[in-house]
Structures are given as C-alpha cells and as structure tokens.
Amino acid sequence: MKTGKTNVVSKYNRWGYIFLIPFFVVFLIFQLIPLVNTIYNSFFENYMSGLRRVGPNFVGFQNYSALFKGGDLLQYFGNTMIMWIMGFVPQILLALLLGAWFANPSLRLKGQRFFKTVIYLPNLIMASAFAMLFFTLFADGGPINNMLIQAGMIAQPIKFMSNVWTVRSLVAFMNFLIWFGNTTILLLAGMLGIPADLYEAAEVDGASPTTIFFKITLPLLKPIFIYVIITSLIGGLQMFDVPQILTNGSGDPMRSSMTLIMYLNKHLYSKNYGMAGALSVLLLIITGILSLIVFKFTAKKEAK
Amino acid sequence: MRKQMKSLLGLSLTAAMALGLVACGSGSSSKSNGTSNSAKNSKEGNVLNIEVWNDEFINRVTDHYPGYKKINATKGKIGDVTVNWIVTPSQDNAYQNNLDKVLPKNADASADKKVDIFLVEADYALKYTDADANVAMKLSDLGIKKSDLADQYKYTKDVVTDANGDIRGASWQACSAGLIYNRDAAKEVLGTDDPAKVQESVKDWASYNDTAAKMKAAGYKITSSDIDTYRVYSNNVSAPWVKNGKVTIDPNIKAWVDDSKKLVDAGETGTADLWSDDWAKGFYPGGASFVNNKGADNQANLTGEKVFGYFGPAWLINFSMHADDPASLAAQGKWGFVNGPQGFYWGGTWICAANGTDNKKLVKDVILKMTTDKDILTAIAKKDSDCVNSKTVLKTLASDKSFGNKILGGQNPYQMLADGAEKIDMSKISIYDQGCNEEFQKAMKNYFEGNATYDDAIKLFNKAVVEKYPDLKAE
C-alpha cells in the first residue's frame, strides 16, 4: 500500500524532470560548455598573426601572469568601477525619488503612465546609437561647442574627448540616462508590493513622509534593492558599447576610459583565445566576489 | 485517459526537442553535395564569387568590363557565368575577418561557394600576398606575364610582391598623392596661387613648417589635423616597422612626431580624427555664418576653422571634398594641387585571384582587362576620375588640355600625379603596417594633446601593438 503510493508520486515527479530538460539542454550548449571551454582555452597560447595560427600550446598560467604584469588590469578595473559608480549613484537616487512619488497615492500624480513610458524610452535606443549621438554632439566643432560659443560662454571650443574627466562623465551620464527608467520601474514594483496598511498605520501614528520613507519603504524594499545593485554591478563590470563607440575603441585619453571588456575586445584583433579566455575567467571571479560582498553586506541585517 | 494524454504530451515535447537538435547537427554536413573538384578542373565554374568591401569595383566592372550584365546591386552575369558580389564592410576589421575565415579553406569549398577574386588595400595587402599564407595566386600561375604589367607603376607591384619576388595581385589605380591647397589662402598669405610657386614654399619640411607659421598668422591652420601629414612621412621610411620580430620607430616617423608636436602646440594644426566632421571643416570657406549656409549640409563650417591644405590623392579631390555641396570650396573650384614636401600615395585597390578558384580563365581576363587594357583604363579615368595605373595613359591625359579638373580650378594634375607615382618606393612594407600605423597615430594623439609625455605615448603604442600582434616584441 505504502510503497505503491510513493511509486505513484515518484512516477509523477518524473514529469518535473522531463519538463526541465529543454532548459538544461539550452543551458548546457550555450552556457556551460562555452564556460568550461573558456577556462580550458585560458591555459593555452593560441592566436593568429596575419593568416598564420600560433598554437595552441599549453602554457599553464602564463596568460594570467601576462595580464597582471604592468598593473594595467587594475587600471582598467578602476576605470570601469569609477564610471559605473559615477552613473549608478545619481541613477539610484533619482529612481528612488521617482519611485516614491509614483508609489505615493496621496500625491495623486497625473499622467503617470505617460511619464513612466517617457523615462523608460532611453533604454529602447541602442546604446551604440546613443554613444554615436553623443560623440557627434560633443565633437570639437559639434553642436554643443557651437551653442556655447554662440552664447558667448566660451571663446575656444572645449575638447570634450581629450580630457579624462569629461570623457568619463559623458560615459557615466549616458549610462545614467539609459538605465534610470529601468531602475525606477523595478523599485516602483517593489514599493507597490509593500502592504498599504503599513503606510496607513504609520500615518495614523503621525509619522512624517520622510520617516515613512526611511523606516518603512526602504527596509521593506531591501530584496529588490539588492537585486538592483547586483544586476547593475554585473552590467557595470561588462560596460562596453558606450565607451567603445564614444572613444572609437581607444579608451583615450591614455586609456583612462578603457573598461575591462574593451580590453578584452582588444585581444579579438589577433583572435587571441588564450589571453581573452584568461581575462574572461578573471572577470567571472571578480563578478562573483563582488556580488557575494554586496549580497553578504546587505543581507546581514535581515537575518537578525 | 488523462494520464495517457499527459504522457503523450510529454513524449511529443521531448521528441520535438530531440528532432530540433538532430536537425541542427545534420544541417552543416548536408551542403557538401557539389561535384568533386577534380572533375570540375577542366571546366570553368558557373559562379564567380568576388569579395569586396564597397561598391567601387562593382561599379568599375559594371561600367567597363565588356559583356558584364547587371542583374541587381550584388549580382551580374558574364556570359553564362553568374557573378556574385559578396560585400563585407571594412569597419572594425570585418572585411579581413571574413577573408581570414574563408580563404584558407577555399580549395575545399563547394564549387559555387569558392571565392574566385578578392580585393585588398595596400595597408594589409602583404598579409594576403604572403608566400607562406598562399591564399592569393601568383599571377604567373594564371598565365599573366611580367611583361603584361610593364606599363604599371613599380610601387603598385611592390605592394603585392611576396618575399620570393612573385607578384600576386594587380591594381587599376595609382594613387600617388600631394598637397591639395586652398587657392584663396595661397593668394592671401603667399601672394600667389600658381602651383609652381606654391610648391616652392612647401618643397621640404623646413619650408613647410615656415609656411605653417605664416598661415597661422593669417588665421589658417596648415592642415586640419596632425594625421594629414602622417602618410607623407611614413611612406618615406628607411626600414620597415618590424625587423626580426621587433618593432622599431623609424627616424622619419619620429620626425613626424616632433614636427607635428610643434605644429599642434603652436596651434598651426589640429588633432581631429581623419574623416571626422572636425577634420572636414576645412572643405568649406571659414567664418561662414548660419544665414549664408542655409540649405548647405550640416557639416558647413560654423566655427570658422580655416585650413590651408589637405594631403591626398586624386580620389580625395574628386569624391571626398564635398564637391556636390554648392557651399564647399570644391564646388567653387578653389583648390590647387602640388607635389608637396615628399612623395607618397594613399589608397588604391588591388585585385587578387583566390587560390582554389575554379574560374581561372575568367579571373585572368578580369585582371588583365581591368588593370592593363589601355582603352578601359582611359575610359575609367574619364568616367570615374581614377588616377589609373598606366604610364602611357597618364601621359596622354597629362597633355590633354580638356582634362582640367573643375575642383582644382581647371588645373590638370595628371603630370604631377604621374611624376609622383614614379617616385614612390614601397619596398619597406611589412605585414604589420596597418596595425602599427593605426596604433601609432592613436597613441601619439595623447602626446600632441598634452595628456602624456612622448615616452608614455610610446609605451602605450608598444602595449597596443603587442595586443594586436602577440608574436611581436616592442620595448
């Protein structure tokens, strides 16, 4: 009797596994195999010089030591993080503010749908098109310089692309513009998930809107918040298209806006699977560590 | 009943998945049904595949190759043979990446997929005409003799000659170049716009730099960017970029750095990238206001940048100086042409026969007709304004009074172009030239703009070269 019942259950459970097969097959072919392959490739010297292929020769950790030699990698990591933070901080602040406004029923905002659509729109433009647009706008003789000169604010055109901080600011600003709408929608969804009776109770107790925001909204928003930070961090580490197009792949001036993935892209010219593989593996490790830190740091208080 | 339905559904789902995978697996192998190569050898193939990066050669063949019938933009017919143009833009190295993929395996491709002709540019020609790579056929194997090419300029043959002295390509263009100068500026500053006298003030780099200072005083930059003069210096080096696997900086390249740094610091030239809007500002009269540029295109010169000259060949004059825009200097015929401080060339397209082609006879005929047939070359010069690769044709054109160039205010530049082409020496090229030249210009921009010292810029250059060519050493 008993064995018969478990038999039925386990037979029924089998369907669960069968329905999981499509995912695992796709995952295996498009994710796991390339991942393992990348790690494998990172231990080989394997590139093209002209039409001649060099390798593959097993070289152990030589690719990794070549990456760390000279400290360039640290510089590119620093560039990436600086430009990410410069874009992310204003982005999360504005998103929180907009989210709080949209989620607050007592404000009775008109045209919410319209504004939600508008702030999301920049995300629909291809990042490379966006960067191309900015490249043209901020060229030495571009519209921005023309306008500033015509308005008499400057006498000589500003060379936006030849200064470390203007280039970095432009990259950060573009990332901010592209992503703040998306973040707003995510945070808004989180805020709308907070039960309304909590707000009502707080209001009855005489809490000010600021107190409500910091004592109720923010703590209850934490899971969504962690999600936003981690996804944005991973996206930030993979920053590529905007600075690549804006600086024409050079990361100028003096590679001060070269990100890790742009550096990875440099190895594609010679189809250098070894170096590119090693860099990818490092990137995987860095992403993992950073995500863990963020997760540990923000999840700690919740456990208490 | 319900249970059966469920298992049936599950079964069909898994079956669908499995089927999809099987279909994927077999897709690639089922295509090799072409007839075997040995059987085809005696007969010519039915399809002529030509790899190009833009429509330039397509137009030349359409207009000038006898018997070519156009079907659409990328298809045509020569007799019974279908001509298939495969266009891959050269941006981001896409054209070369494509060649790298298909050419080494060309002999094993199915008959209709074989590449028969591919085009190359001078900057990377050696990569494909290399004897070891052996992806471009020796012209002698096609039955083209050296005497067939006797009328072509030597440098155009040097560019596609491998280490053993075999020629593996041919060009219909000889892109010798010089200084294209603004006639108004010449009159204003030098007191004359006569080419012979203007040449005197730019005859070597010392007088060129003196002229730059005079131009600056009158509000002109001598060139739009430091990059303008790069090719003039780099075509006159004493040794190739790479020797025994080591990157070395030639004295003439160093001279470009030193001269350009002085010019940039003095405000006598700029640092815009080639082809950027900022670079092209000088194509328009300077100081124009919004009002009188109404209707002109958006690159009109609003910031009042005035430029004395651009270094370039005939195609730059004819196609790139915005002659179709009535507001431009080119449309008003206000440019002149002189040889400038040193001889150089810029651009040009070479035709190579892909190893493994199954249309040898046709390929031979295309190369011979398009690069050596004097009637066709004359027609190309007349219709498309190419500076063609034939000493006799250029000589005829130079003495032809009707051949004045409107953009150059009626000046006939062919004698100068022909003289320039004789002087070019391209024996100092290496397969690494394209990457080295690009990275050197990029790195030096940092030095010119004051973002780095010369030594730091050189370090950046070395780093970038080794990234592109991991087998090189650079210190």
Account of the 3D structure:
The complex is a heterodimer of chains A (304) and B (475). With 304 residues, chain A is mainly alpha-helical. Chain A has one domain (69-303): MetI-like fold. Chain A has helices at 2-41, 62-68, 72-103, 112-120, 127-137, 143-150, 164-192, 196-204, 209-220, 222-237, 241-246, 260-266, 273-303, and strands at 44-49, 52-58. In chain A, strand 1 and strand 2 (52-58) form a beta hairpin. In chain A, helix 3 (72-103) packs across helix 7, helix 5 (127-137) packs across helix 7 and helix 7 (164-192) runs antiparallel to helix 10 (222-237). Chain B is α+β, with helices and mostly antiparallel strands and 475 residues long. Chain B has two domains: 45-174 and 348-399, D-Maltodextrin-Binding Protein, domain 2; 176-343 and 427-468, Periplasmic binding protein-like II (D-Maltodextrin-Binding Protein, domain 2, 3-Layer(aba) Sandwich). Helices cover 41% and strands 13% of the residues of chain B. Chain B contains 20 helices and 14 strands. Chain B has helices spanning 2-27, 37-40, 56-64, 94-102, 125-129, 139-142, 154-158, 183-190, 195-201, 205-217, 230-234, 251-265, 277-280, 314-320, 360-372, 374-384, 391-399, 414-423, 433-448, 454-468; strands at 47-52, 68-72, 75-78, 81-87, 115-121, 170-171, 176-182, 221-223, 242-243, 246-247, 307-313, 335-338, 344-345, 349-353. In chain B, the strands form three sheets. In chain B, strands 2-3-4-1-5-14-6 form a seven-stranded mixed sheet, sandwiched between helices. In chain B, strands 7, 8, 11, 12 and 13 form a five-stranded mixed sheet that branches. Chain B has a two-stranded antiparallel ribbon with strand order 9-10. In chain B, strand 3 (75-78) and strand 4 (81-87) form a beta hairpin. The termini of chain B are far apart. Mean pLDDT of chain B is 84; it is low at 19-41 and 287-300. The A-B interface holds A 15, 18-19, 21-22, 25, 47-52, 54, 70, 72, 136, 139-142, 145-146, 149, 157, 159, 162, 164, 248, 250, 252-255, 266-267, 269-270, 272, 275 and B 6, 10, 13-14, 17, 21, 93, 100, 103-104, 127-128, 130, 132-133, 135, 270-273, 276-278, 281, 302-303, 305, 431, 435, 442, 445-446, 449, 451-452, 456, 460, 463-464, 467-471.
